Every structure is written in structure tokens, then in C-alpha cells.
Amino acid sequence: MQDTYFDNTFDIDDAVLERHRTAAESALKRDEYGLLIGSKWVDSEGGGEGVAIDPTTGESLATFQVGTTADVDRAVKAARDAFEEAWGQHSPRQRGEKLDEIADRLEEKKAELAKIETLEAGKPNLHSRFVDIEILVEQFRHFAAVARTADTGRVVPTDDEKHVVTKREPYGVVGAISAWNFPAMFVSWKLGPALAAGNSVVFKPSSKAVLATLEIADICDTVLPTGTVNVVTGSGSVVGDAISQHDGIDKVTLTGSKAAGVATLEGAADTITPVSLELGGKSPNIVFPDADLEQAIEGTIVSIFFNSGQQCTAGSRLFLHEDIRDEFLDRLRERIDELVVGDPLSPQTDIGPMIDHEHAREVKGYISRAIEDGARSLVGDDSDETDAGEPASETAGAPFVQPTVLTDVDDSAEVACDEVFGPVLTVFEWSEREEVVKRANDTRFGLAAGVWTQDLETAHTVADELEAGTVWVNTYDDLLDPAPHGGFKESGLGRELAEEALDDYSRVKSVKMNFGEVLKIG
Questions:
Q1: Do 448 and 472 meet the contact criterion of CB atoms below 8 Å apart?
Q2: What is the secondary structure of 417-458 as a DSSP string?
Q3: What ranges in 28-85 are assigned the alpha helix state H?
Q4: Distance between CA atoms of 181 and 172, rounded to whole angstroms?
Q5: Hey, what's the torsion of the CAs at 39, 210, 187, 506, to 10 degrees?
Q6: 278 catalytic per annotation
Q7: Contact by Cβ (8 Å): 144, 96
Q8: Which domains does the chain have, with CATH numbers?
Q9: Active-site residue among 59, 215, 278, 496?
Q10: What burial class does residue 440 get, using C-beta atoms within 10 Å of its C-beta: 0-12 exposed, 13-18 middle, 19+ buried?
Q11: Nearest to 402 by CA among 331, 345, 351, 347
């Protein structure tokens, strides 16, 4: 499909247009995607269609169905049938074998899936291929192994006349709602543990990035029993609400904004449906004076500019010790100047566009208001220091935001407190450890944090003191190893990525058997 979605907005070089059209033709199976319900591609009950847009070129990639409450009903029924008649009857070993087979098939499609994610989300293809898609496959492999012991309980010590054990059981039907910034990776974060525990799934991707989810679900469907994984595309206010409020869904999981998390909790309240949430963040990244500055600079680049800053874990608050502040910023500016901003399909590109123009305007609004309030832009929009990060002229008009570094920002400023969700770094100076930890924790979020030091005692002490679900020391955004991931405070409930996720996708039953005297009253 080659219709331009934004009239006269883009001025894209013909070579870039051709590159994107060729990639779409080679990676996408179809121009029109239905809802995946009961292992069949079907139209929405409402008959509405949405358009998947390439943010780099503004061209449509494919159409997809806009689901309704009735479509969620159909998907829940299909998932319930699959759980009761097929998938729910699989043994832990059988579930593990199926997840391994899914991983094998995803492995074969890595290149195509990476292209799809790049086309619909604008992220550099090298990042999609060697980070997101690697984690996608790894998560299925990890939970294939976890599935083999997913039902393991324990024996509770008691006297000789009793036998007490616990069992883990799946909830049944899981409703999963995901965000647009890591569309392929988030599928595995939800499906991996949900399927390992023995649940069937109704999945709703963000309308801003549906194609990778649909393609991955199609691959899963070729391996799993009919109706085990269903996908209903559409808006959060309709499909998302229908999932969170549905009395046929036994567990809800969401990755998204705080507002989406609150709406999900409210929707699930009437039926007391368990909810797990991975929400936003405003993560501190603290550099101590003894840190390896080269490593800390590279880590800072990753923490805020990976995926154009469109990541919940973004280390958007950089705390530099006064002894190294000036040197660090000088070297950081030089490193940012080397970054290539442009076509995400180019292997030279480090930073691609925002997901769309609306989001780009929101991010630029934060920058403009910060500068109006007295912040200084060392790098990026309105900077008089450098032109680093200017997008290539061949993609002029696409929704790019330059990598931006702001200083002279108060801890209580809007840009320092809100999740900007873009390549915007705010810099703060500190002198005492107790002071910087207190400031780092002074946020309503608690998803992640970074610490850079060569002192082991400092690393342990500060990691203990930081209020965050994940603390990285001398690294950042390292999600390749299956360690539990999730937030404190307003950053969410529950854990993903590791065996602990089974706590969110299964429930514990106690079985108490008595072979002696019955308890009597009176």
C-alpha cells in the first residue's frame, strides 16, 4: 500500500521511499489484517478499519480491523474453549515443547519481524533485529524451560496424620494489553509466562503498532491449539475497556501509561479481576566521581536515546557529581554529535523518528516550556552549542526530535517530573551521596535506576537505597538476561521477564488431607 497518510507533511527522498516499500513487501504477509479469533482471520463486528502508518514516510503499510465489545466477547469465548478443551489440558512438559517450537519458528523469521517493527514503530533496524527480536525469542525459550516446572508446589510440614501440599494452577483466560514502543518484544513478555502457566490469551496491541503483534500471533497460532491466542485490534477506550471489564477474563495484564493502568484497575474492580501493570518511569541515572566516564557516557546514551527515548525505563534524570560534571558534559556532547538521526532502515542510523507527529509535538512542547522557564539546552532544540542530531535531509518532514540535553533545571520542574517519553535528558549536579539518593527517589515513579561507580560498597549501598524495581550498576537497559522486571510506586504492579512472572499468571491452591481425627468443636 503506497497511499500517503499525512498530506504534504513529508518530503522524503525517493530512495528512502523505495527502501521502505521494498521492506514492507518482503516482510508483510498481507495488505489487510483481520482479527485473529479462534485461529481464523475475521472482520470486526463493527466493520471499522484502521491504517498502520510508517512514521518515517507517512505511507500506509496495511489496514487492520477496529474491534468492538462484541469482538472481545467472541475472542473470550474462543480462548475459554481452548483453555477448557485443549491448552489447559496440556502437561507442563507439553507446554514447554510448544513454546520451544514457537521460539524455533520465530528464530526463522527474525529478519522479517525486525523489518516490520522498524516500519511500524520507526526504531533503527539494527536495534530491532539485535535487541528487540532477540529478547522476543529468548523470552519464549526461557518460559519454555520454566513451563516444565510451572505447576510445582511444595509440601507443607505437618504431623503424620495429615498431608498438606500447594499447587499452582492457571487462571484460565488472560486479557493482555500492550504498548506501541516495543511491539514485538511485549508480545513475548505477556504470552511467554501466560502460556507457560497454562492460560489462553486475548491480546490487544496498541493501535499505533499492530502488525508485529499480528504476525507473531499468527506464528504462535500455527503451533498452539485452536483459539489459544487471539488478537483483537482497536482502541483502548473500546477494546481495552472491554477486556478489563469482561467477566469471562480471569486475569488482566497491561503495559502502558499510568492513565491506562488506572482505567484498567477501575475496569477490573467490579469483578475483582487480578491485574498486573508495567507503567511509566522517570528513572535516575547517577554518576559517581570514580566512575569509568567512557562507560558511563555510553550507558547514558543508551539510557535516554535508545528507541528515541520512547522507553519506560529511560534514564531521563542524569545526576552528575560536581567533580566530573563539566568533563562529562563536554564528552557527552561530543558523543551525541556522532549519533546519526535518520532513516531507521539505514544501518548507519542510531535514532529514528517518534511514533507520530502528535507525539513529537508533545515532546517538543516539554522542551520549549523548559527553556521558557530558564533551562539551558546544551544539545538539541534551541541549542546554541551544537547542531548534533539534526535528521538527514532525505527524511525531512518526518516526526523527528533531536537528542536534547537540558541543564539549569529545577528538581520540581515539569520536564524533570513528568515522563516525557522522548530523547530529552535533564542534568543535575550533586555533591553528597545521601543528598543524591534522596533526590533520585523524589519521584512518583520507581521503575528503574542506574548507578556508575567502581566502588563495590557504594554500588551495594546505593542499590539498596534506591526505590526502583531494577537497579543497573555500570550498565543500563540490560534486559537480555531473564531477571524480574517491574516497578515500585506508580510504575506498576507485578513482574515480567523471569520466573517470578508466574506469580502473576497462576494462582496457588492449598490441598489439606486429614487421615486422623476430625477437628471437633465442643
A1: yes
A2: HS---SSEEEEEEE--HHHHHHHHH-SS--SEEEEE-S-HHH
A3: 69-85
A4: 28
A5: -60
A6: yes
A7: yes
A8: 11-279+496-506 (3.40.605.10), 284-485 (3.40.309.10)
A9: 278
A10: buried
A11: 351
From CA 335, how far away is CA 325, in angstroms rounded? 15
Looking at residue 148, the DSSP 8-state letter turns out to be: T
Q: What's the rounded Cα separation, in Å, for the pair 297 and 376?
A: 20
Cα 116 to Cα 114: distance, rounded to the nearest angstrom: 5
The one-letter code for the residue type at 150 is A
Residue 207 CB neighbours (<10 A): 19
User: How does strand 275-278 pair with strand 492-493?
Assistant: antiparallel
Tell me the pLDDT of the chain (522 aa) as tens digits: 333 333 334 678 999 999 999 999 999 999 999 999 999 999 999 999 999 999 999 999 999 999 999 999 999 999 999 999 999 999 999 999 999 999 999 999 999 999 999 999 999 999 999 999 999 999 999 999 999 988 778 899 988 888 999 999 999 999 999 999 999 999 999 999 999 999 999 999 999 999 999 999 999 999 999 999 999 999 999 999 999 999 999 999 999 999 999 999 999 999 999 999 999 999 999 999 999 999 999 999 999 999 999 999 999 999 999 999 999 999 999 999 999 999 999 999 999 999 999 999 999 999 999 999 999 999 876 554 434 445 556 788 899 999 999 999 999 999 999 999 999 999 999 999 999 999 999 999 999 999 999 999 999 999 999 999 999 999 999 998 889 999 999 999 999 999 999 999 999 999 999 998 888 887
**CA 328 to CA 287: how far, in whole Å?**
9
The grid cell for 170 is 492457571
What is the C-alpha R_g of the chain?
Answer: 24
Pairing label, strands 317-321, 424-430: parallel
